[in-house]
Design goal:
The protein is an alpha/beta fold. Helix content is about 40%, strand content about 15%. It has helices at about 10-20, 45-50, 70-80, 100-110, 130-135, 160-165, 185-200, 220-225, 240-245, 260-275, 280-290, 295-315, 340-350, 385-400; strands at about 30-35, 95, 120-125, 140-145, 155, 165-175, 200-205, 235-240, 255-260, 325-330, 355, 355, 375-380. About 50% of the residues are buried.
Length: about 400
């Protein structure tokens, strides 16, 4: 067996399963889960219809590069969303089966294991795929802790030149999972300068880009590159997905876009990997990327939901409305000293609400685990269910304070 597999940690939800082992939740309450970031709003009917109308595509082998109509739809969406100049659908866009598999696969393409001690830089806390992709590409993950004083942006200025010289790939998550933080133009300017100096590739994970709470949409990596005069997108690959934007996580449909030279090599890798998207899914994806009305309606639901839930939770938890995404990243020690794991376990046992301990989404790095005493709450269900969960969390946290 590949010995690198032994470096992988259990996935956060496996850890959660072990944490809840032997616990019988209070039967007085129906179960509510805020643990998994799986969209629960209904899939728009027109996307379902587009899929049903194109089932004949199941009779054909798909091309790894995708069909021209899908690449054109994605390029058009990028141009509209980020006010970009012409994106070449043939060389700067590649459809993928959801951003998750592409985030993993890019590391296998980019990392040169013949160079000494290659590093993959990850934010901390982080999406666990980044760590696994690093190990299985023969590299080592290097974690940069988020700074709560800087809106949870990773503290890249704390990294030494010796470390930067070994970095081959840097994962950016903006809007962030689990923090909801969005990088600004100055952040991107700093990262591009570091990439130019040290030659690493930037993988910009932007799958939460369409769920936001301010009037101004989150800045994207390609948009930042264009604003800074880097329209060739050198050493930059952006990842996006329909899962959150269009409530179709089961379609596994997304794209990568950016540096044409990197995408050429990535396409070669994927041709052997077998990462082609079903023609039927491609047709439904075209319909989704070409429509913004359902995206606006979806975002309005989240705005309404967060406006009601966040103030309620602020009574007992240290939590703020994020820039974007559908998570709340809360400190649990506002009223009493308790670990994030014990908080999650007791909340599940006593009130039948599931949240994810923050320490499961981070690693011990530089003397601390930035997820300790935090929980991630995914407000993905309809507003009534999220409000009920919040009310139970308030009641539970007040019992902790009472003691």
């Amino acid at each position: 067996m590949n010995p690198l597999l032994d470096k992988l940690q259990p996935y956060p939800f496996e850890k959660l399963k072990s944490l809840f082992s032997g616990v019988t939740p209070n039967p007085a309450y129906r179960p509510i889960s805020l643990g998994i970031g799986e969209p629960k709003h209904p899939t728009p009917a027109f996307i379902q219809q587009a899929l049903a109308d194109n089932l004949s595509g199941l009779a054909s082998y798909p091309l790894t590069i995708g069909n021209e109509a899908l690449r054109a739809a994605i390029a058009g969406w990028l141009e509209r969303r980020y006010a970009l100049p012409k994106i070449d659908p043939a060389s700067q866009v590649l459809p993928v089966n959801g951003s998750r598999e592409a985030l993993f696969a890019l590391a296998q393409t980019v990392i040169d294991p013949t160079r000494p001690d290659p590093l993959v830089m990850c934010p901390n806390p982080f999406y666990q795929i980044y760590e696994g992709s690093a190990y299985l590409a023969g590299a080592t993950p290097y974690f940069v802790n988020s700074d709560p004083a800087r809106n949870f942006a990773p503290d890249y200025r704390s990294v030494s030149d010796e470390v930067w010289s070994r970095v081959q790939l840097l994962y950016v998550c903006s809007p962030g999972n689990p923090t909801g933080a969005v990088l600004g133009l100055e952040d991107w300017k700093e990262l591009f300068a570091l990439s130019d100096r040290h030659g690493f590739v930037i993988a910009s994970d932007e799958c939460y880009s369409e769920i936001y709470f301010k009037q101004e949409a989150p800045l994207g990596g390609l948009e930042a590159a264009h604003l800074l005069g880097r329209s060739d997108f050198r050493r930059l690959i952006a990842f996006s997905s329909l899962s959150k934007r269009s409530n179709v996580p089961g379609m596994r449909s997304g794209f990568v876009a950016g540096d044409a030279a990197i995408l050429k090599k990535f396409l070669l890798y994927r041709t052997y990997q077998g990462g082609a998207m079903s023609p039927s899914i491609q047709s439904a994806s075209i319909a989704a990327w070409n429509d913004e009305t359902h995206v606006q309606e979806n975002r309005a639901k989240y705005i309404t939901k967060f406006a009601q839930v966040t103030p309620l939770l602020q009574e007992v938890l240290d939590v703020a409305l994020p820039d974007a995404s559908f998570y709340l990243w809360a400190k649990v020690d506002k009223l009493s000293a308790i670990s994030d794991t014990e908080y999650a376990r007791r909340l599940y046992a006593e009130y039948n609400v599931t949240v994810l301990p923050g320490s499961y989404l981070a690693r011990d790095a530089h003397g601390t685990n930035p997820g300790q005493q935090r929980i991630r709450m995914a407000l993905v269900a309809e507003v009534d269910e999220c409000l009920e969960a919040a009310q139970r969390i308030v009641a539970f946290t007040r019992t902790l304070a009472a003691g």
